[in-house]
Each structure stands twice: as structure tokens, then as C-alpha cells.
């Protein structure tokens, strides 16, 4: 309440000290008119004496008046030269007055920065005004208020139904909003995968289950393949998992054996349609549309959430001086209730201030750098970036060779190799990818220190390189599998369009690779937590006298590394959901397990990183990385659906050359008028004007964003001028008090 009163007082003081000008004359006349027609504004009106009490010479000494006078002189001289001098019109005055009146009528009283007594007075005035309105207007007012109250109550009820609400609040209270944003992001991925699974279940799995278990009066439609050689339809499913007991473990970890011909993988859905009583359900089209639906839903959901964080980051793009002030006066996280986390927040603020000072030092160093030093540092950066590219190329080549070796040797009979060898062959690509993801961040962290960047840019560049490394490894694996599927020299390959001998149902085998990556990633997370973090915590706690363990210390809960891990798993889910329809359900269970494992690890084994993230910055960064993962996942899916021939031995697309062919075949069954409309929309004659319109809309929003940015700059300048006016007034008041004291003495 005191803050609101001080804000209103400061605003009144600022308005009282404005010099006489046409805008102030308009405000005075508009104030009188509005006060007579709207009593609610009378309580907010300013005393007219405040405009006449200060002398004019005193007002002209204010810094804000001098700045406005300089700008006005510049604008007037420029407009006189251009002949575009404009005068305020009465229509503009009435329009602005109407906007202010309408804003007062429509907005809630709680939005005004007033004290409680003034808000009560406004509420009484509004209730008095209600009596003089018509019954229709009264009903609209009451219904609007009732609807707003209902929405507020519904939002309060939904907050109690949030998943892990108490756990996340407890984490926020103990460790701050930065770490809390990671667990909120993990909850978002759980909900996203659950919705994706529900889409696939309702569209693809439910009709098959209803028909197979005779729940409805429906039957499967199996259309024999035409113009397809019988050799291309051979699909020998291995049954070696029934021989040895440990083969069940291998099948469970790799998706082979008894899991291969289940609802988990693409090959089980060898159905052309489901015939119900009144219609025929086109399963191939539904399968393709479910994939497009979950990708579009993920894109819209991520963009919607990331826009909110982008707005906050855009507002917070302050100057360096404002950054220092915000860290000192507004940098504290009031959600912290733990003493150790309070100390950690103090050290984090000190680290941020040191980082800002270091960035300022580097910025000054760059300004004073000679041409020879510039050439030397850029040459060094070029050499180090070549090393980074060489490391990435080596990792990609290792993944490529491991994938080829695994694919060529995994077809051996299981009785010819022992349990460990078989498991190693199956998981060789996953092991190489995990090692690459573990080693490359260490190398990148060492290299970045020699590139002479600012601390903030060092963190962003290292994270960007790690993001590219983690997500590109999945694409390398998928493209390597695609090259093996489409490249062969045998007659059977030319006959079927793909390597039918090695990959009779290549979609299922790609789904098995994604399944293995998902399972192995979960195994690594659990193993690191149980066999690395917990023993490390015990040794550091109970053997603290040893210098080796003191230097080792506890494991840091690094937010960027953990985020990259779950984004890596989500990218696998997006790619593999087409080849393994139940993979989103497995990803949902996996992220639930990770939530509890990471929570226990944070509370008992890890310590928060001294480099803390703001919640708004963290959310935007997380969603940006997730959006990059989604874009990378769409590329191999699009190529596999549009370019690689579909399997002729399994799956719902056995009667199509590619997966995408089901779309033009479905369009051909439409009426002629609808076909003409669809072909017209997809033609170049429609695409070129549509692209131009989209570009114009984009340019409009870019210009609008630039205008908003200029308004933000003007508001910041106004705040700076207001603070300077306050300092000037305080200085004058101090001088006046000193003169008065001297006179009395």
C-alpha cells in the first residue's frame, strides 16, 4: 500500500512540475470535462494549484524540461524545413479523451496503483453509477463480473490439479527459480508426451484394438499387393528369444524377438483399413495424419510457450548501467527460504557482477585492440574452430562406423556369440553416441578459454556447440541407417527399391534403434546417479579430511547439461514415434522416473551450480533448444516418408511406393470440385502470392516490433528524466532548507 501511495505521489509530483505547453493545456481542459461527466475520475484528479505554484524560471531549470525543449526545437526546425508541421486538432483531443474514459470504465479497480481508501471510493462511485444504467447495461456489467470471477476461480482450481505442484514449490523454496524452471520444463515434457501418446492411441491403436478383440462389429481390410514381387513380401521374424533365458533380457533391451511383432513397432500394423458398419476407416491415412498432428501440436505448443519468455527477455534487454542496478536492487529471489541457498544466491550475484565487470573489461580491451592483435586473435579463433570441427567430424565418423558394424553383425545367430558380445553389438551405436556426448563438452570447455570471449558469450557458445553435438548425433545415426537401407547392388534391391535382404521391414528396425537409444539413455542416467553421484557424496562427506576428495567436491547440478539430456531424449521420441507408435508412452514413463531421480539427486547428492539462471531466461533457453530439436527431428522424418520406398512386407503402407503417396490417393477420391480446390491450393499459382502475403505480414510485424522497441526506449528515457528531476528537486529542497535554517539562525 505504501509503495502504491509513493508511486502515485511521485507521478503527481512529476505532473505538477510539467511546464505550460499545449499538451498540459489539453490535460487541464480534458480533466475538467471528464470530472464533470465521470465522478470516478474526480478522486484521481490533481489539484490545479500545483500547476501555478512553482515559478516558471524554476520549472525551466528541470533536466526533463531542458531535454524536451531541445527535442522540440529539433523537431520543429526539421518539420519547418520539410513543410510537415502539424497542429493538434480537436478530433484528436476528443479521441484521446474517449480512450481514457473507456479505459477507466472497462478496467478493474485493482489494476490502478491507488491505496485502499481511494479504491473503495471508486468502487462506491461505480456502484452508484450502476443505478442510472439501463437494465441491459446492468446485466452486461454483472455478467461480465460473474464471468471474470468464474475464470479466476477455475484457474485457482486448476492450479491445485497441477502435476508435482508441491514438489516443484518445495524445490523453488529451497533452490530458487532457476532450478525450479528445469523441473517445470520436465513436467511440460511429460504432459507433451502424454498428449502425443493419446493422439496416436486414439487415431491408430484404438481402432485396431476394438477390431482385434471383437469389441465392435468391425473387421480388418487386407488388400493384396499388386505389381510387387513375392520376394519383397518375405518378413522372417526371429524366434531365437525362446531358446535361452538371457535372450529375453536382450529382447527387452533391444526390442527384438518377442517384442518385434507387437503393438510397439511399425511392422505390427500391416492393415489397410478397418471396416465398421457405416464407414471404412483408412488406417494408412490415419497413421500419417497422427504423425503430422503430433509434430504440429509440438511446434505450436513450444512456440506459444517460448513467445512468453521472449517477451520477458525483450523487455529485459537493458543497458549495462541498468543491469548493475537491477542486480543490486532487484536481483534477490524472494522464493528462497533455505539458508544455504541464500548464501549461494549471494555468491551467484557476486559472480554475475564479476562477470559483468569482466565483460566490460573485455569490451574496453576490444576497443583498444590494435590491428595486429585483432588479426592474431581472429587467426587463433579460426584455428580453434577448425579443431572443433575436426572433433565433431571424428565423432560423426565414429558413429557412422559403429552403426555400420552393428548392422552388419547383428544378423548372426545368437548361439554363435555370448551374452555380453551380443549386447555389445546391439548397443554399439548407443555406446559411441553416449561417449561422444560425454567427451566433447569437456573438450569444448577447454578450447573456449583460449578464444578470448566474454564470460557470458563463452557459456552461450559452449552450450550451442553441445546442443549441435547431441542432436546431430541422432541425425547421423538415422542418415547412416537410411544409406544402408537404400544402398545395395543385388537384384533384390533393385526389385524392391531398398535392401530387402538386410532390412525386410526397415521401419521396424529404425524403430528398434530409437527404442535402444531411449532405453540406454535411461540406463545411463540411473547408473550415473546410483554409482557415481551417491558414492561421490559419501566420500566427500565422510572423507573430507583427504585433500583429494576436497578438491573433487560434490557433483554440481548443472542446469544446461541436464536440459540437454532431456531434450536429447525428446528428440529421439519425436523421430521414433512414427516407427514405434508406443514410444511416447515409454518417454512419458522415462521422464517421470527422471523427475524423481533428479529430485532425489538434487536434495541428497548434488549441490546447485554457482552459475544460476533466471527463471525467465531459463524457460526461453529450454524451449529454444527444444525447438531446435524438433526442427532436426522433422528433417529425417520428412525424408523417410517422401523419398525412401516403404516396406512391402510390413506396415500399413505396403500398397504404396512411399508413405506420402496415401495423400494424393485420398485426394483422388474427393469430388471434382474439392479436388480442383486442393490442387489449386497446392499449385505454384497459389503458393507465390501466398508467400508474398506472408512476407508482407512478416514485414508489418517487424515494423510493429521496431515501433514498440522505440516506445520502450522513450519510456526508459522518461524514467531516467524523472529520476533526474527527483534528484534535482531533492537538491533544491536541501538548499532551501539550508537557507531557511541559516536565516533562522
TrEMBL record:
Localization of this protein: Membrane
Molecular function GO labels: mechanosensitive monoatomic ion channel activity
Record's keyword terms, sorted: Membrane, Transmembrane, Transmembrane helix
TMC domain: residues covered: 505-616
PANTHER family: TRANSMEMBRANE CHANNEL-LIKE PROTEIN 7, TRANSMEMBRANE CHANNEL-RELATED
Family to which this protein belongs: Belongs to the TMC family.
The protein's name in its UniProt record: Transmembrane channel-like protein
Name of encoding gene: TMC7
